[in-house]
Each structure stands twice: as C-alpha cells, then as structure tokens.
Amino acid sequence: MSKSKLTLTAAESVACCSPVLTDPMSEDRAERIAPLLKAIADPVRLRLLSPVAAHEGGEACVCDLNDAFELSQPTISHHLKVLHEVGLLDRSKRGVWVYYRVRSRALGDSATLLAGVGR
Amino acid sequence: MSKSKLTLTAAESVACCSPVLTDPMSEDRAERIAPLLKAIADPVRLRLLSPVAAHEGGEACVCDLNDAFELSQPTISHHLKVLHEVGLLDRSKRGVWVYYRVRSRALGDSATLLAGVGR
DNA sequence: TGTCAATATTGACGCATGTCGAAGTCGAAG
DNA sequence: CTTCGACTTCGACATGCGTCAATATTGACA
After folding, report:
1. CA nearest to B102, candidates B82, B87, B117, B118
2. How high is the ipTM of this complex?
3. Residue B61 CB closer than 7 angstroms to strand D?
4. Protein A77 CA to nucleic acid D23 C1', in Å?
C-alpha cells in the first residue's frame, strides 16, 4: 500500500501487537476486534468466504456467488460489502464485473488472535 | 445429568470433521458454527475470556468479573451464560459462588476452523 | 445516444441482541 | 425458620442486523 491511510480496517487492528494472553484485553482493543469477528459470525458470510478462496486465481465474480445462494442479489452484495469493510475481502472492478478476493492474511491473524485469547 | 447428551454445543460441532478449505462450507455446518463465532464477537465477551483464563487455576468467580466491568451484574451474568451455552465456558457452582472456566479446546478448535476457511 | 446487464444503494420490515432494574432462587449462617 | 448475599431469570426498552423490492449507478455495446 503506497498511499497513507488514516483509518485502519478491523483486520489491520488485529494484525499488530499480539499478547492478549494472560492480561485482560483492553476495552479499546476489544471494541476494534469485535466487528471483525462479527463479520465472520454469520452463516451466509461464512459460506461466502470459501467459494471465493477456492475460485480460480483466488477471486470470484459476484455473479458466480449470486447463483450459488438462494438469496436476493442485494443481500449478497450487502454481505460482501460487510466482509470488504472489515478488511477480509479485497474488491476489484473489471469492466462490468466485480471480483472479490480473500485476504488470507487477515483471516489468519484473526485465527491467531482467537487462539491467543484462551491460553 | 451425568452422561449421554443428545444435543451438541456449538463448540462441539466445530471440533469434528475439519476440511472447510477449498470446498464450500455446507449451509448446515455454517448454521451450527456461526453461533459460536457470534458468541465471541462481542467486545464484552471478548474481554471476559482472558480474565477467566488468567485467573488462579484457570477459573474465575462471577464476583471477581463483576468488579472488573462497569456493567450491571445481570448483564455480566447474561454474557457468561451465552459463552457457556455455546460451550466456551464451563460452569461450576461451589457453595454460593459460581466459577467459570475457559474450555481452551473449544476456543482452539474455532481458531483452527477460522484459519481453514480462507486457504 | 440509448439500451441492456451487473452491482450497489435505499428504505422498510421484522427479528435478534445488549442493557438495565426488579424479582426469583438457592446456599450458608444465625 | 429467617435473613443475607451471590447469582440468575424476567420484562421492558432501544438499537442493531438480515432480508427483500425498488431504485440508482456504471460500463459495454449497438
């Protein structure tokens, strides 16, 4: 990322500074991390992640995802937006189509975080 | 109840069968896992886990937790119940006091699951 | 320019959830 | 048996969230 950003996504807030272990998590940190977990904690969004990751080249077109779910197109669009906003999905528009890509680093960081909370 | 349970906690549903990797997560599985993640995806509950894990002997009394938060006692009790119901916290009553203990296995399993979704 | 197709946004609806005060339960100790 | 203290449950309130239909936007192409 060349340009300087002023705000961090939830995923980026997770990435740094690790030791959540024994000492209690600060209120501030919890408030920043919760949205990320909340984004994943939805059945539809959970199911959205793997098809994207599994697709050719690691990215999937929205149209493919629409077909794979029995939900309205706006609803899928909404969920993708949520995942994008917390930094779990990258978004790139090519022509009329929009492709999403999993930021596996962010996902891995949240997993690490989770593992660290309890031990 | 001494043994044989008919229903699994959300945490137990996560434990078995791993490969969420490339093939998409089934709707059924997603519906069972989401509540577990949803339970952790709250700032207060996130902050509740580490003090419990860090306490003497890995368990903490509700009274200790009440003092550590600026929330009403019923609210803390509610959050502990949520964490308990999804299988992340064990609950044992000794005398007048109630002690909660982190089931680190369950927490670890959800972390593993999360790591597996994106790659 | 105008039309069509792919996504996004808006607005509205109902349901879920976090919070509190008040009341209920359940041991322990007089 | 009565009282007290530690929790839990209940009822109510406000806010948040998933969903859809309708509408807007954007790019390709005739």
Report:
1. B87
2. 0.86
3. yes
4. 15
Mean pLDDT (whole number) for A24-50: 94
Q: Is residue B6 part of a domain?
A: no
Give how far A105 is from chain B: nearest CA, Å.
9
Report yes or no on B5 lying in a domain: no
In a domain, A8, yes or no: no
Which residue range(s) make up the domain with B102? 21-117
Q: Is residue B103 part of a domain?
A: yes
Q: Where residue A68 sits, what CATH number does that domain have?
A: 1.10.10.10
For the cut 50, the answer to whether the pLDDT of residue B20 exceeds it is: no
Neighbours of A52 (CB within 10 A): 24
Which tens digits make up the pLDDT trace of A91-116? Answer: 999 999 999 999 988 889 888 888 87
Cβ distance of A24 and B111 shorter than 8 Å? no
The string of pLDDT tens digits covering residues B33-60 is 999 999 999 999 999 999 998 888 889 9
How far is the CA of A45 from the CAs of A78, A84, B104, in angstroms? Answer: 10, 11, 25
Q: How many domains does chain B have?
A: 1
SS3 assignment, position A71? coil
